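Ex. 9. Protein: CLN6 protein.
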Amino acid sequence: YIPFFLILFIYFTGCFTPAAEQSRMPLAALLLVGPSSLYYWYLVTEGQIFILYIFTFFAMMALVMHQRRKGLVLDSNGLFLFLSFIITLLLIAAWVGWLWNDKILRKKYPGVIYIPEPWAFYTLHMNNLHAAKGTF
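Predicted structure tokens for CLN6 protein:
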């Protein structure tokens, strides 16, 4: 995953423009921010790569603040990626908050950083519901 996030960050470094009007996202891009965020949420939670994701996100935030001092703003591509990462962080926080008191998943994912895998949640809770009903 390190090369993937490194490439994303390198791409992100080229997504700045001095013209504020180029930072507007078309409606189609706005509609795709949700699926993109869900993809990153799944990648981070199932791959257990939160540390890599959060370091990349903080590097992106630092770069945005640094470039703003130079008078540069994100273009539509950079804005899309940045918004996807922000919404991903919110989705991860909601996921962790929802499963915070799950005793079984807590045992499976001990430690300071508690981010359960979606597949573990499915096999623990959802799969049991299907088996109880007798349907697959």
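Check your answer against this statement. The two ends are 33 Å apart (CA to CA).
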